[in-house]
Each structure stands twice: as C-alpha cells, then as structure tokens.
Amino acid sequence: MSRQFARERLDPVLDLPDGRLTSRAVLGATIGNILEFYDFGTYSFFAIPIGQAFFPASDPFASLMLSLATFGAGFVTRPIGAIVLGSYSDRAGRRPAMTASFTMMGAAVLLLALAPSYDTIGLAAPSLVVFARLLQGFALGGEVGPTTAYLMEAAPADARGLAVSFQPASQQIAATAGALVGEILSVTMTSEALNAYGWRVALLLGAATLPLGLWLRSALPETLHLPQPSDLIARPGGQSRADRRIMCLGFVILASCTITTYVTGYMTTYAMNTLNVSAPLAFGTALISNAVGIAAALLGGLLADRAGRRRVMIWPQVAALLMTYPVFLWIAESRSAFALLGGLGVLTLIGTIPYSAFYVSMAEGLPRNIRGGAFATIYAFAIAIFGGTAQPIVTWLIHLTGSALVPAWYMLLASASGLFAMLMMPETAPLNLAPNDNRTFTTPPPLPSHSGRDEHP
C-alpha cells in the first residue's frame, strides 16, 4: 500500500476539462460511498440471518443484538480512519486518500462475505467478522471527507450544491441497490436458502465493483493544487474560532442526519421483526424509500444552488419534523403496504432534501487546508457515536417498551436537534442576495492549465 501511495504522489495530475466535473469523476469520487452504503444496507437487511450464522444463541433477541453490535463495531475505528486519511487528503491530495480508502474497504467487504460460519470454525468466525468491520470502519472514516471536498472543489461555483449532492445521493443509490438485491433474493430463494447464504450473495455482488472503483479512482483529476476561488474561505494556519463554530454545528447536524438515515435503514428489520410483515414487503419498503431519496438528494443540491443553503436546510427539516410522528403512527396502527411504502416514501423525500444543502455548506465554510480532514473527522465521530448505536438502541427500546413508535420518538429528537443547529449555520452560497431577491453568482477566476506534476500549496 505504501508503494501505491508513492505512485499517487508521483503520477501526473490530470486537469478537469473546462473546469467542469465530468460524470466519470463523479462516479470515481462516489463509488466508495456506494460500496459503503450498499454493505450497510445489506447488513441491516440481513441482520437476523447474519446473527444466526456468526452469533448463534438460544434467544433470538440475543442473537440479533450481537449481530447489530458487531455492525456497530465498525464505527469504533471510523474516527481513527478519518483523522489519518482525512489529514492525508489535505497534505497529499484527495485522489490518493480516496484510493487507499477504497482498497481497504473492498478487502473488508470480501472478508465479511467469505468468512466461514460459527458452525464451521467456532469462535474464529465472529472474530473474523469483527476484524472485517473494524477495517471497514477505518477505511470509511476517511472516505466521506475527501470525496465531499473533491466534489465541491472540482465543481463550478454555480453548481457546487448539485455536485456535492451526489455524496448523499450515492448513499441512497447504494441503499436502493441493496434493497433491490434483497427484494430479488427474497422472491427467488426459499427462506432457508435466503437465511443460509443469501446475504453472502448480496455482499459479493457489491464486492464486484472493486475493479471498476480502483480503475476510476486511479485516473481522477486532482483538485488540491487548483487555485482557491475568490468566494471561498482561504485562511492559512490552524483552526479559527469561526472554523470551530461551523465544525460544532456540523457535528450536531451530522448526528441528526446519521440517526435519521440509520433508523430509516433499519426499517426492513423493523418491518419483519416488529410489525411482522412479509419479507418482500419489508424489502419493498426500503426499495421505495431509498429510490425516493436519490431524487430528494439531487433536488436538495439543485435547490441549494438557486435559493441558498440555509433555506433549503431549514424549511424541509421543519416539514420532516412535523410529519415524523403521524407517519409512524399510521404505519404502526395500519401495518399496511400503503402505509409502509407511501408513508416512509414521503418522509424520506422531505427529510433528505436538507442534507445536500448542508454538505455543500459545510465544505464551503471550511478552509481548504483543513477541509478534508475536518469534514471526515466530524462525520466519523457523529457516525461512530450515533450511527453505530442507533439500531441497537431502537431494538432494545422496542423490546423494553413493546411500542412500535420508538423509531418515531428517536427520529423526532434527532430532527429537532438538527433543526436548531441549521438555524445557526451561516449562509455560504456564492450568491449576492439583493433586496428584490435577484441572485447573481460570484464567478471564480479561470482555472489555469496544468500539464505537469502535482503542485501542492
């Protein structure tokens, strides 16, 4: 891997054609997120059979809790990966950090998919699974920060919101793909086969993206050497008071987003384990809500480019806050396909829009010399503390209270905290907002042509 890092530092840097972000660059930057959240979705969908394979117990609840706790183990190493790989991206470039992250991530997914069961090798089986989750957590910790910084830096000023929205959109794409695979497997395999090895098939399908991802990332144009646009913050040295304020607010918003995302991703297990609906309907619920989330994430980025960041963060968040309890009450009381598919679909549509605007606002609000590392670290700590615990906490509270409305209360608390922080975030869009609401974009200086090696400031 050290040789790979050395090659990344020495290879010529490709220029972005006409200063525009190409579709190949977007895919190369976000494919790590796609694999990450595909694996996340697959593990969540198959938490019950994975628990039976690696953590057999006489009590099904204990087996499920051990499975979810192992899923959460990957969050422990995320802050470490964020600090190491995020800081590396601020020194050496976004491309080498993203390539290293993706390589380790792929190795972890393969190990998880191919690990023998407890019945085959005993205690070594859960040990392998825990190690795979720890390695994956380290890799993923350094994934989001560099890719978000890359997408924002590579995009023109009037399209940064849309470019960065591919970060949350890629997560929804992956979750949709995972739900689609789960849906197909649930209707084409017997229940015995699905529980025995269906989850392995799903994980191996995700691992098939490894060659494509490595090829795409090895050819990505670098953005760290590009001149800083005039509308972005450019402060030398360490963190300022303004930086720390944005980072603190960002942590609260990311915690809110994390809880919402992971509780929503838990809906397949929730639907089967708590609502006792059929597997095809449970997988269909995730499929519909995640597919809606793709459009919502891109719409949020598009709106952020036209209306500014704060408006697009605040008002949809208010709507989602007001809708959460009624939607879950409808689902818990009716337990119908229409409530599950329609209710969660609408809630996902409204609730996903604010976070595209937040991602670009956070990236714009941080100086380039700390952007990748700071974003990665804040994201990783929010995920580690709130993402890794969301599903076990919800499962435990449902078991303790017997209430099917536990996810709603947990999401309400998270959404209210996120809204409070969004209200305090500054506007970072390159917009001149005149009293008559006419908007003109601040145009950054033209990008020079680079034909030699990396030039890091």
UniProtKB/TrEMBL annotation:
<feature type="transmembrane region" description="Helical">
    <location>
        <begin position="372"/>
        <end position="398"/>
    </location>
</feature>
<feature type="transmembrane region" description="Helical">
    <location>
        <begin position="279"/>
        <end position="300"/>
    </location>
</feature>
<dbReference type="GO" id="GO:0015293">
    <property type="term" value="F:symporter activity"/>
</dbReference>
<dbReference type="InterPro" id="IPR020846">
    <property type="entry name" value="MFS_dom"/>
</dbReference>
<keyword id="KW-0813">Transport</keyword>
<keyword id="KW-0812">Transmembrane</keyword>
<feature type="transmembrane region" description="Helical">
    <location>
        <begin position="246"/>
        <end position="267"/>
    </location>
</feature>
<feature type="transmembrane region" description="Helical">
    <location>
        <begin position="197"/>
        <end position="216"/>
    </location>
</feature>
<feature type="domain" description="Major facilitator superfamily (MFS) profile">
    <location>
        <begin position="25"/>
        <end position="429"/>
    </location>
</feature>
<feature type="transmembrane region" description="Helical">
    <location>
        <begin position="61"/>
        <end position="85"/>
    </location>
</feature>
<feature type="transmembrane region" description="Helical">
    <location>
        <begin position="404"/>
        <end position="423"/>
    </location>
</feature>
<keyword id="KW-0769">Symport</keyword>
<keyword id="KW-0472">Membrane</keyword>
<dbReference type="InterPro" id="IPR005829">
    <property type="entry name" value="Sugar_transporter_CS"/>
</dbReference>
<dbReference type="InterPro" id="IPR036259">
    <property type="entry name" value="MFS_trans_sf"/>
</dbReference>
<feature type="region of interest" description="Disordered">
    <location>
        <begin position="434"/>
        <end position="457"/>
    </location>
</feature>
<feature type="transmembrane region" description="Helical">
    <location>
        <begin position="338"/>
        <end position="360"/>
    </location>
</feature>
<comment type="similarity">
    <text>Belongs to the major facilitator superfamily. Metabolite:H+ Symporter (MHS) family (TC 2.A.1.6) family.</text>
</comment>
<protein>
    <submittedName>
        <fullName>Citrate:proton symporter</fullName>
    </submittedName>
</protein>
<keyword id="KW-1003">Cell membrane</keyword>
<dbReference type="InterPro" id="IPR051084">
    <property type="entry name" value="H+-coupled_symporters"/>
</dbReference>
<keyword id="KW-1133">Transmembrane helix</keyword>
<dbReference type="Pfam" id="PF07690">
    <property type="entry name" value="MFS_1"/>
</dbReference>
<feature type="transmembrane region" description="Helical">
    <location>
        <begin position="37"/>
        <end position="55"/>
    </location>
</feature>
<dbReference type="GO" id="GO:0005886">
    <property type="term" value="C:plasma membrane"/>
</dbReference>
<dbReference type="InterPro" id="IPR011701">
    <property type="entry name" value="MFS"/>
</dbReference>
<feature type="transmembrane region" description="Helical">
    <location>
        <begin position="312"/>
        <end position="332"/>
    </location>
</feature>
